[in-house]
Amino acid sequence: MLQRKMKSAADEGRVHLVKPKAGNVGLWMLAWPIFIEIFLQTLLGTVDTVMVSRISDDAVAVVGISNQLFGALITLFTTFAGGAGILVAQRLGSGRQEDARTIAIMGVTASSVLGLAVSIILFLFADPIARSLNISRELIPLAHVYLTYVGGGLFLVGLTASFGAAIRNTGNTRGPMYTGVAVNVIHIVLNYILIFGAFGLPQMGLGGIAISNLISRLLGATVLMVMFCGAFERKIKLRDFGTFKRKLFGEIVKISWPLGLNSSSWVLSQLAIYSFLAMLGAKELAARTYLNTLESFCFTLGYAIAMAGQIRIAHLFGARKLTEVYRGAFRTLYIGLAIVSANVLLLFVFGKTLLGFFTTDQEIISIGVSLLALNLILQPSKMLNMAMGNALNAIGDTRYTMIVSMISMTVIGVGGSYLFGISSGWGLVGIYCCMIADEAARGLLVLRRWRGRKVLHAAEVESGGRQSVQGKGGKTLFKMNV
């Protein structure tokens, strides 16, 4: 009887019950699996960097600048998945399970098609791309190997990110975490075997990392696809990936294109900055790559808190619990700032020792140490920008964050870095100062926007002041723990 009533409600487009785990979640319960997953990804990047450093510092420089390019391209084909993830959380918050399922499918499909196109371009045009990144002539052969084979498999990263985003926004943050653990272990083991020629195999250098990446990413994408197909009340089948509903796809595009431009602008700005570093020299580029790895550890838990806050706020916004939405963003910010500040202080104290794990070149270590104090300002500024920016994205205010980000990153981030870092001769210190100014400017602007409550006021008027999803007879059908 209950099943027939729920089916009838779904057929008529009315709200129906959702899986409990999609709604009854708190910030920490969402955040800790995301933290473990991101931490392991960061650890994997660190292991890659350490292993590559045993090849040469030149190889580290190639991996560093190539990964910035990959980051920029990944945002292009995960744009739909990111926007779809926010809409999935909002739909689940309002109890519309079928719409959430359809949106998730279309987001993954669009990301997969774009990812495959990008991978083909990288595989076919590795050398021209390497030259456009200002990679020196002697490093082009190394760049060719890394861009061709790691870049050629980049669509697998898109698949993994797309499946993971959809699964996490249903409230299941543990599944992607467990998958990440397994993938990272496999990747590290394969790295050791293929790079250094264990068990009698030939030493493959960067080529070994490329093969290891492809195998581990393929396994991860396969596991997450299986998990994704069972993430909703109605199981997703292979034929469902051809699903297309124009109205829902229009909503994905509306929320996604600003997200895509925002993310792409950030990573492209970082890519431009890395090209400036390449102009300074291989040692500066290697120092930034090593320090960037250490900085990632400082920010990992703060990033996880920001991501969990976005999922939670999107669920609450879908349920029209607007007071909790507004307060929840500040709770996310305060927790994130406390964690990031403590971590970056530890980096300041132990940074020189940690840099010694990557290289014995005292000039590179000296360059890295000179930047440690600036991180005491840079990382908290990133947290402010991330927490409040994600909160705005969660309620659909993606155009504002896009406009602010594109202007600030172009003028302050890239323009300032070239002016002070290259033209004025301040080097890495000048570039870092501009990075701080960029993050702080964006953070303060999105904080001001959030305090203005423009979208929240509009949602309150639209919903007539209702703060929860009501069913027949006034019974609450969806509840989110605060």
Radius of gyration from the alpha-carbon trace, in angstroms: 23 Å
Distance between the termini: 32 Å
Biggest sheet features: none
| Beta-strand content | under 5%
Integer tally of domains: 1
Write the element-wise H/E pattern from the N-terminal end onward.
Answer: HHHHHHHHHHHHHHHHHH
**Which structural category fits the helices and strands?**
mainly alpha
Number of helices: 18
Rounded mean pLDDT is 81
- Number of DSSP E strands: 0
Contiguous low-pLDDT stretches (5 residues minimum) are 1-24, 465-482
Principal-axes geometry comes out as globular
Overall helicity: over 70%
Can you give keywords for this protein?
disordered C terminus; cell membrane
Topology:
Layout: H1 2-11, H2 20-23, H3 27-53, H4 57-93, H5 97-124, H6 126-132, H7 140-152, H8 154-169, H9 174-196, H10 206-229, H11 246-280, H12 282-318, H13 322-355, H14 362-369, H15 375-394, H16 398-423, H17 427-452, H18 454-462
Helix pairs in contact: 3-9, 3-12, 4-5, 4-7, 4-8, 4-11, 4-12, 5-7, 5-8, 6-7, 7-10, 8-10, 9-10, 11-12, 11-16, 12-13, 12-14, 12-15, 13-14, 13-15, 15-17, 16-17
Describe this structure in words.
The chain has 482 residues and is mainly α. It has one domain. The chain contains 18 helices and no strands. Helix 4 packs parallel to helix 7. The longest helix is centred in the N-terminal third of the chain and has 37 residues. The radius of gyration is 23 Å and the shape is globular. The N terminus and C terminus are likely disordered. Its main location: membrane. Keywords: Cell membrane, Membrane, Transmembrane, Transmembrane helix, Transport.
